[in-house]
């Protein structure tokens, strides 16, 4: 039993630091809005680990949003089937990438939240009121996670928009939670992006809301959890349960039941793309004592612009990914 636990821990940490993911395209009833269109896509696909940080809202430092900010608002009919498309590469799907849409070690749940806003173009995300409309976690009987389904479905995740939600502008927050390092906190890895949408039609429901930060605590059993040993007999997804219209709304399981089009048959609307310029970040190692017992955990953040946490590593070496993010790596 002990040997299994140690092996599982090694496997969990085997995912490379680059095996991350980004929600980067929204489909509405089987039609793609366009790569990055209307979505606040970060410049880096790394995780957020501090549940008390404002970056847990729609992403942010150490993963600043691509510039310029998206000027598109995606129209969504009430009750539509929506599809979030996730990929490891910030530029889209890559058939030669073994970690696309995310590394298989990054097991965990998927969640979707909405926040009503006066304008979906607002750049102020603090203080918004969020309600969950979708979640998928662990099927204990088959030991299948929502992320496993996402990988099997090539990065596509379907869910139904409740038809009783009032019309208007919203931010749509997609979240993938990777639990391979969640045996300690910080350790769970949160990946999220927000899409700018306008719901057309709808009802007059008033869903109960939560705040980000505030909806999660580092001690939550769905955030601080060893998913390898002993085997889980249950798993509680963080945050509130999804809002439904009188309990009658259909749900999906990470792109498996409500899709009316296949991946091959999806149609994409033409969008104008502009060239992006990127600079190669030089990865350098900071001086630190590996296995000192203090500092950030393996794969945890250990530096970056504005970072106020630990700058040494309890295990591994603190390496710079970019100006905003350094990480403890083996």
Automatic annotation (TrEMBL):
InterPro entries: AA9, AA9_LPMO, CBD, CBD_sf. Residues 294-329 form the CBM1 domain. GO terms for biological process: cellulose catabolic process. The keyword Secreted applies. It is found in: Secreted. Its main location: secreted. It comes from the Eukaryota. Its cofactor is Cu(2+). Residues 1-19 form the signal peptide. Pfam families: AA9, CBM_1. Keywords: Carbohydrate metabolism, Cellulose degradation, Copper, Disulfide bond, Metal-binding, Monooxygenase, Oxidoreductase, Polysaccharide degradation, Secreted, Signal. The keyword Secreted applies. GO terms for cellular component: extracellular region. Lytic polysaccharide monooxygenase (LMPO) that depolymerizes crystalline and amorphous polysaccharides via the oxidation of scissile alpha- or beta-(1-4)-glycosidic bonds, yielding C1 and/or C4 oxidation products. Catalysis by LPMOs requires the reduction of the active-site copper from Cu(II) to Cu(I) by a reducing agent and H(2)O(2) or O(2) as a cosubstrate. Has a modular structure: an endo-beta-1,4-glucanase catalytic module at the N-terminus, a linker rich in serines and threonines, and a C-terminal carbohydrate-binding module (CBM). This is AA9 family lytic polysaccharide monooxygenase. It comes from Arthrobotrys oligospora (strain ATCC 24927 / CBS 115.81 / DSM 1491).
């Amino acid at each position: 039993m002990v040997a299994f636990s140690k092996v599982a821990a090694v496997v969990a940490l085997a995912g490379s630091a680059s095996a991350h993911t980004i929600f980067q395209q929204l489909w509405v009833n089987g039609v793609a809005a366009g790569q990055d269109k209307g979505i606040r896509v970060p410049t880096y696909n790394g995780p957020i680990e501090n549940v008390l940080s404002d970056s847990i809202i729609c992403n942010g430092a150490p993963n600043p949003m691509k510039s310029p900010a998206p000027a598109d608002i995606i129209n969504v009919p009430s009750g539509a089937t929506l599809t979030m498309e996730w990929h490891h590469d910030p530029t889209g799907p890559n058939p030669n990438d073994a970690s696309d849409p995310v590394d298989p070690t990054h097991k965990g749940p998927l969640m979707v939240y909405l926040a009503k806003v006066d304008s979906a173009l607002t750049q102020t995300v603090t203080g918004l009121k969020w309600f969950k409309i979708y979640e998928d976690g662990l099927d204990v009987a088959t030991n299948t996670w929502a992320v496993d389904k996402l990988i099997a479905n090539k990065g596509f995740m379907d869910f139904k928009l409740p038809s009783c939600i009032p019309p208007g502008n919203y931010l749509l927050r997609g979240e993938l939670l990777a639990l391979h390092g969640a045996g300690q906190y910080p350790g769970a890895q949160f990946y999220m992006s927000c899409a700018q949408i306008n719901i057309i039609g709808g009802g007059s429901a008033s869903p109960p809301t939560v705040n980000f930060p505030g909806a999660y605590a580092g001690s939550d059993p769905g955030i601080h959890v060893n998913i390898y040993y002993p085997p889980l007999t249950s798993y509680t997804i963080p945050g509130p349960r999804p809002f439904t219209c009188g309990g009658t709304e259909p749900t999906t399981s990470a792109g498996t039941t409500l899709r009316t089009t296949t991946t091959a048959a999806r149609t994409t609307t033409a969008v104008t793309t502009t060239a992006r310029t990127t600079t190669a970040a030089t990865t350098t190692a900071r001086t630190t004592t590996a296995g000192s017992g203090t500092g950030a955990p393996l794969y945890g953040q250990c530096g970056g612009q504005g970072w106020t946490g630990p700058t040494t590593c309890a295990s591994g070496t603190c390496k710079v990914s970019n100006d905003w993010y350094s990480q403890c790596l083996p």
